[in-house]
Amino acid sequence: MRSLRGPSRPLLAAASLTTALALALTACGGETPDPDPKPAAEGQGSAEAQEGGKESGDRARAAKDLADRLKKHGIDAERWKDGAWKDWDKDDWLREAKDFVNPVIQGLWKPERMRGAEDPGKTVTTKDTTADQGQTDPAPRAVPAEREQTPYHDHAAPVGKVFFDAPAGSMVCSATVVKDPRNPGKSNLVWTAGHCVHAGAEGGWYRNIAFVPSYNDLGKDAAGLAAAAPHESAPYGTWWADWAATSNEWIGQGAGSGGAGAPYDYAVLHVKPESGAKSLEETVGNALEVDFRAPGTERIGTLGAWGYPAGPPYDGLLMHRCADRPGRLSLAPGQPTMYRIGCTMTGGSSGGGWFRQEGKKSLLVSNTSIGPADNTWLAGPQLGRQAERLFDMMSQKYGGS
């Protein structure tokens, strides 16, 4: 295994599911990315930043809180930003749930650094396991991943890329903007995989975690993106995680091959913009509701998985999608079963959302977690009461920040 990073009716085609999702994602409009953004004049902040002292006061308090947390762990904030974060001494690697720190390093995720953070060999393993026990359905047929239509902000705006640093280098995953029930219309919450933020049993929290919705909005190839303006890489800007939460099972049992933590391989980020003051949901224009009912595969219908696969034959620059009826995958007796669909997406698609249609709504029901060495299927956790408690904690404690 590898960690990536009613009455019956005919299966929906991938294109049909995409159309329904696109309608749901763009229903609220949102801000169309500026095709030619003008830099602020010297000494002039954004209009949002000038609306009053509340935002600046909140930021000052948040900065002090972060500095205090760093100091508690013997970390000097300025030295960290100057490169001390590259020290991955295992004895000092913060790993407990309460120890997450992620100081913003302005301009770290430049477009060229984003393009280089796409080596899935460093984020996934092709190790196979024989731990497939319990109640498991036959492996699905491989469903070829299809490219998402461009511009992405018109078809799947809440989907984006997560960038982070690990001991082996700069890495990538995928993620989704999700609704915050305590802050309707102003969510700053992002759903991804646990292994995209924390190394599991043998490590700790990754560093410099940032989210870019609709990354490479126009779907340019490597040469085109290298010559593109920065806003084409990050049309809605770069959003830094100021807090992250994943399951205790992932922290305690997660591994490069998924391990016993795979059925609990999910995470929630609270993010803030590298610049600006509007919320993520306001900026992107929409977010998806998370469905924590964990419906059985016999009731769930077709699932669509979205992400940015980076392992061959993909290069991590383009958004792709798969659609399939899910089956069950059991890794060990006594553990929750996982959803499994046919899909050829590779490493880099980890953390990408799995969506189902309920009426006119698209609901997030899982995220990409693991897959086999031959890249024929993906599996993701069922999101039940335990995942809901984690999400509710993030909403209650950090959502209004």
UniProtKB/TrEMBL annotation:
<feature type="region of interest" description="Disordered">
    <location>
        <begin position="28"/>
        <end position="75"/>
    </location>
</feature>
<feature type="compositionally biased region" description="Polar residues">
    <location>
        <begin position="123"/>
        <end position="136"/>
    </location>
</feature>
<keyword id="KW-0732">Signal</keyword>
<feature type="signal peptide">
    <location>
        <begin position="1"/>
        <end position="29"/>
    </location>
</feature>
<dbReference type="InterPro" id="IPR009003">
    <property type="entry name" value="Peptidase_S1_PA"/>
</dbReference>
<feature type="region of interest" description="Disordered">
    <location>
        <begin position="114"/>
        <end position="142"/>
    </location>
</feature>
<protein>
    <recommendedName>
        <fullName>Secreted protein</fullName>
    </recommendedName>
</protein>
<feature type="compositionally biased region" description="Low complexity">
    <location>
        <begin position="40"/>
        <end position="50"/>
    </location>
</feature>
<feature type="compositionally biased region" description="Basic and acidic residues">
    <location>
        <begin position="51"/>
        <end position="75"/>
    </location>
</feature>
<dbReference type="InterPro" id="IPR050966">
    <property type="entry name" value="Glutamyl_endopeptidase"/>
</dbReference>
<dbReference type="InterPro" id="IPR043504">
    <property type="entry name" value="Peptidase_S1_PA_chymotrypsin"/>
</dbReference>
